Amino acid sequence: MKKLIYYWGAYGFIELLTYILLFQWVGFWPLILIQIASTAFGVFIVKRLWRGITQNMRKGKVMTPYLLDTICLFLAGLLLVIPGVLTSIGGLLLFLPFVRSWIKPRINRWIERRMSQGHFTYFDMR
């Protein structure tokens, strides 16, 4: 838990330095507009993905082939919603197919590891 607090503090410090540098480079209003646009785009992506997931579940469609892409895009939307330049850059990077193809095997291994340790509960919605 202590490490998490240190990581969070370091992230906040780096984010603050990034904001200061960008403020000096582009100015206050462009930086605020970029942040508002990033957050609005993230909310749009998350809402659209959530709507698509719920519609597929209601219709009984199988989402398995696209599940890891959906998880990556949902994570990208969440990163865009979180205020910050670094999270916005991370969210935008997740929209690139080669970044998703690099991260999908890692997500898959993480899920498999968690399932083998018994940290996931599976239930069938039928």
UniProtKB/TrEMBL annotation:
Gene: fxsA
Superkingdom field: Bacteria
Identification of the protein by name: Exclusion suppressor FxsA
PANTHER family xrefs: UPF0716 PROTEIN FXSA
Transmembrane region(s): 5-22, 28-46, 66-96
NCBIfam families attached to this UniProt entry: PRK11463.1-2 (NF008528)
Annotated Pfam families: FxsA
GO cellular-component term (any): membrane
Assigned keywords, A-Z: Membrane, Transmembrane, Transmembrane helix
